[in-house]
Each structure stands twice: as C-alpha cells, then as structure tokens.
Write a structure and sequence with these properties.
Two copies of one chain form a homodimer. By secondary structure, chain A is an alpha/beta fold. Helices cover 37% and strands 13% of the residues of chain A. In chain A, β5, α6 and β6 form a beta-alpha-beta unit. In chain A, α1 runs antiparallel to α8, α3 runs parallel beside α8 and α4 crosses α7. The longest helix of chain A has 24 residues. Chains A and B meet through α1, α2, α4, α5 and α7 of A and α1, α2, α4, α5 and α7 of B.
C-alpha cells in the first residue's frame, strides 16, 4: 500500500442507471419523460446571450426561484433550487439531519437515501412498508433525527393518503419531515397545502420528469423561509454558483408554458391508464400507479428472468434485486408506441414460458 | 425556539461576490473573462438536440472527459469533472481530507478553503506566506491530513516556483497534495508534468476564467487513476448527474477551438502588461501577476477608501478586509477600454486625495 492511500475516504460506489446505446432501444428504465420539453425551452437556449456565458450565474438563481414561487403561489424566500432533486435532497440531509439521532425512511424507497446517509455519516433506520406498500404512520412515532419518504413512492408508484402524512407530521414536531414529490405532477394531489400548517415540512420537486428536463438538472424544495434560509447557507458554503445560465433560462421557460406542461402530463396519464389495462389483461398486478411508472408483478413469471429477456430484446425496464422487490419490475410510461412494443413482447413471452 | 430548530445545522454563510446591476458598470471584481467564449460554444448550444434535454446526461460526462484528456495528453481515467472547480475541490475535500489530521493551506489564499473545511468538519492550520507572499515549503513538512494551495495564488496572482512545489510533494508522500490551478492558463507554467512522478498530486482546473465559461459551471481535476476513481465514487454517492447536457456540449466545443483559446489568453496577457505599466506610473506596487488579475497596493492610498470610491463610480474591484490583505485591491484584467476607465479614475483620484 502507498503511504497516502489511507488518507482516501472509501465508499461503496452507487451505480448509476444503465444508459443503453442501441438505436432501436425502448428505454423505460429511468423514468424520463418520453416527450421533449416545451418549445419555449429550446427557444430560450437558442436565444441565449453569449455574454451571459462568460459571467457567473446569479447565485440566488432569482429568475428561476421567482418563476417557481409564482407557479406555486408561495414566497420567493420559500424556494431553494439545486442541480436536480438529488442535489437538493443531499443539501437537505446535510442541513437538517445532523443531530446524531437516526433518521427514518421506508424500507422500499428511493435507493439514494441510504447512500446519502452513509456519505454524511447520518445514522438511519428503515421502516417496513405494509403488505400493500403503504406507510404505517405509527412506525414514525419514535424519537428520531428526521423523516424522509417519496410520495408517490419510488419504486412502487403508490400515493400515500394525506391523513397519514399529517399523522407523521403531528408526531414529529421536533424534527424536519421531507416529502420527496419528484413524481407528484402525475398524481392526484400534493401535500403542498400542508405547508401552511407545518413549518418543519420540506417538499422536494424536480423538473426531470414532468417537465422533460432530466438533461438540464433542475430540482427544488419548498418550505418555510427558515428552512430555506438554512439550506441556502449550507449551499453557499459548498458551491455558490450551481445552476448554470442555460438551466436558469430553460427552467424559467418551462414554467412559462403551462399549457404544454398540462397537455404532456395528460398524455402520459392516458398512456398509463391504457398500460394498466394491458398489464391487467396479461395477468400482471400492481398498486394503482400515481407516478410516470408502474410497479408490476406477475404470479406466474419470474421477474428477474423477464427483466433479462426484455433486456435482450433491447427493452429496458428497472429491476431491484432485493428481498421485497425482486418479484417486481418498474416500468416507465413511454409513448403509446413504446408501450405497444413492450406489450407485444410480453404477450409473446407469456406464450413461450 | 421551535422544537425542530435544534435539528438544523448552522453555518456562517459564505457571501458570494457582488453582482452589480448598473448598465454602465465596469466589472473587475470576480475574475471573469472580458471576452465571450469561442463561437463554437454558441454553435453547440444553438444546435442542441432537444431530445437530449429530456434524457439524463451521461453520468461519466464522457464527451467532456475525453476532450479534456486529449487536450492534456492524459488518460480519460485521469480526469474528473464537476460543477465548476468549487464543486471539484469540495468533492476532493470530502474524498481526501477525512483523516482527522489538520490540513495545511496558506494564510492568504482562496477564501473557500476554510469554508469547506468547516462544512466537512476538517481541522486545518493556515501557514503564513512570506513577505512577498511566497510559500515557505518548510511550513509544510509537519505531519498533516493533506495540503492545498492555489497556484497562481488567489488573490496575490503570484506563481510559485516548481522546485518549491516539488519540495512540498517530497515531504508529503503520505497525504494528498492539491494544486488549484484555476488561473494557470494565464501563467508561465503548470505543475501538470509533475503528475508523472507524484501519484498523490491532484491538479484542479476550471473553464470559468481562461475559457470564458463561468456561466456554464465546468471545473475538472487531473490526477492518477486511483485518485480520480476515489473522487468519482464519492461523486456518484452524492449526485450521479451533475454536468448537464448543455455544459457537456459547451465544454467539448470550447476545447475544440484551440486557436480562439490561445488568442483570447494572449489578448488578456497584453492588457495585463499594459495595465502593469499604468499601475507603476501611478505609483502602485504589485508582485508580478500570473493570473487574470493584479493585486495592487499604493504607499499613499488607503485601499479600503479607494475601493469605496471606485464602487461609487460603478467600478467594481475586490477588497479583502483582513490583516494581510487590507492594503490591497484585487483588480481583474478587463478589456483595454475597461482598464482605461479604471486608470482615468485613478489618475483623477490621486489628484484629489
């Protein structure tokens, strides 16, 4: 061993999702939006003043926080933006989960939560979801250093009842509760209205899914001005200038085109309804999806085998080989044409096995 | 106090540099390049495939690391990219400075080093620069948890001798030594050739200054494959997708236009020479500048008062009100026309005081 090697911090590296390169691939594995962003975004990028590129971007990302605040009807001091919701949640972990007490999150959840906890040396306990992947609020009554869960859940696509979340908030008035609403634009409701009553609630959103801007890396959090100020102080101590000039312009342009946003979501919801019907016809089961993906299982099919067979046919879905998820596949809602290719394959596959 | 407030981590927030808004301002305060980036960058942004915007960017940033590796003649596994060099250095602090021993850096240095050390709870000791702001290598012989310094130094603009840096490396074979070369494209030489002999050396660079891309947030590190892999593992545990599609395209386009890059640097160096002459004529003193800024002092003028007077005239320079720097102003090299406005003001100011 070289003398300097013991100075290096070692982590088990997180493996990012697969980026298949085949031109004929059907990519239903990373919950991207199958439609491009609003034409207003392309227009904003084409019209970028090149003089802006040489200047540091506004560290307060004002043009973007203003647009987001206006869209949600909250104060600009209630909005924090980051390089995707991953950056926003990582900053929230650093800011709010440093008490030394364990934080709580579900056992079936976004796979990055335990990774951040380990990176920032935050102790954590996972709380098992119920039989139908529902949150059991009483699991969150014990003393803890904070709570986080995605809603709709990833990878189950289940939307939790508002009463359940209120119950968790009522029992956790001494810590910060983060609701990760990355997928909520595809769901029936958000918990944003609860912000009026809970100053310790932080809601996280992203432009990656519903706004078709995964490639631009824009996420945000909404919360009380006190929570947002604490996050901003940490962010300014890490990297003052994170949202680049193109992301500022693209994000604001996306917000400006409400019609396109609504239409795209409705198209995906229509494909989701149609896909549910097809999955049912083929004997698959799932909890009602409220995100842009469906978490499906089949009583007669081995999910791991099916995942591999799909992969060989250049149809990419996501498989989580862990005790509670290994009978399931997470399938992103693509275009109708992409879903038809999937269902054609599945029909044929069922006939073969 | 609310019950949840004690769960929030408090830091002394870093205050980002001033972003003046006056249309007639002369902005010489944040070391931005006065010239726009290569036309190839604008072309790359205009030609962005909008389908890319809806897809997650390549987490390995391959198109960019390949371009950087080719430019420097190193392996692609020797390049790490981040959201500006601030992101790169923050990741390096997390990865390499976690031994618990104090890290060493100069007392007059980039003001973010102590901020990151505090954020990541890394103990540190500052080592006073000599009378002419030179590094005294013997200060770095004691056991430590790592070493970092900027070269050329910020804010002094002084370039350290290669022998001094080799001496520090020779005496620190049990830790990682980071040389922050944010400004080195404006200097006479780089320490990159030392990489062949020192596997524990990490060199950090940025596209913000010499490539006129502060607005796009692109920084990188070059080092041995082992150092780069360790940083990448930490990065993937923090946020897999940080460099967005437009930054990937803009960065690669910038590298492709070597001629423009060289010409722009020569223009700035010519203005720097001319500015040095003018400063000398006006009685200012400075160490030989090797970055795109000059750190000037005047025996008869109060630097703090001059800073305020300049500010009132909408000429923005940087003033660091600390014991060793409060007699100095850091002046970014702008265009010849901008510098003329500065010198016209200074000539008049000297006549008045």
């Amino acid at each position: 061993m070289k003398a300097w090697e013991d100075k290096i911090r070692r982590v088990t590296p997180y493996t990012p999702g697969e980026q298949p390169q085949e031109p004929d691939k059907v990519k239903l594995n990373t919950n991207e939006n199958p439609y491009p962003p609003s034409p207003a975004v392309k227009k904003a990028l084409d019209g970028m003043d090149e003089q802006l590129l040489r200047l540091y971007p506004d560290p307060t990302a004002s043009v973007l926080t203003k647009a987001i605040a206006g869209y949600h009807g909250v104060g600009q001091d209630q909005v924090f933006v980051g390089v995707g919701s991953d950056d926003v949640i990582a900053m929230a972990f650093m800011t709010f989960f440093s008490s030394g007490k364990p934080i709580f999150f579900p056992d079936v959840t976004y796979s990055f939560y335990p990774v951040w906890a380990e990176l920032f040396k935050i102790p954590y306990e996972t709380k098992p979801l119920g039989e139908h992947f529902e949150i059991r609020p009483e699991d969150y009554y014990d003393a803890n250093g904070g709570v986080i869960f995605p809603n709709p859940n990833a990878p189950t696509s289940r939307l939790e009842k508002v009463e359940v979340i209120e119950d968790i908030l009522d029992h956790n008035q001494d810590c910060i509760v983060i609701v990760d609403e990355a997928y909520v634009d595809f769901a029936d409701y958000s918990v944003l209205p609860l912000l009026d009553r809970y100053e310790n609630l932080l809601v996280v959103r992203t432009f990656s899914k519903s706004r078709s801007l995964a490639g631009m890396r824009i996420g945000y959090a909404i919360g009380s001005p006190e929570l947002i100020k604490a996050m901003s102080d940490i962010k300014y101590s890490y990297n003052s200038y994170t949202i680049n000039q193109t992301s500022l312009a693209a994000g604001a342009a996306s917000i400006s085109d409400e019609t396109y946003f609504r239409e795209t979501i409705e198209r995906i919801k229509a494909t989701r309804r149609r896909s549910c019907e097809r999955f049912t016809e083929l004997g698959f089961r799932y909890t009602e999806p409220q995100a842009n993906f469906i978490f499906v299982t089949h009583p007669d099919l081995d999910a791991g085998e099916l995942f591999k067979a799909l992969r060989e046919a250049h149809i990419y879905v996501r498989y989580f080989d862990a005790p509670r998820t290994r009978d399931y596949l997470r399938v992103t809602i693509g275009t109708d044409a992409q879903m038809d290719l999937l269902f054609d394959f599945l029909k044929d596959y069922e006939g073969r096995v």
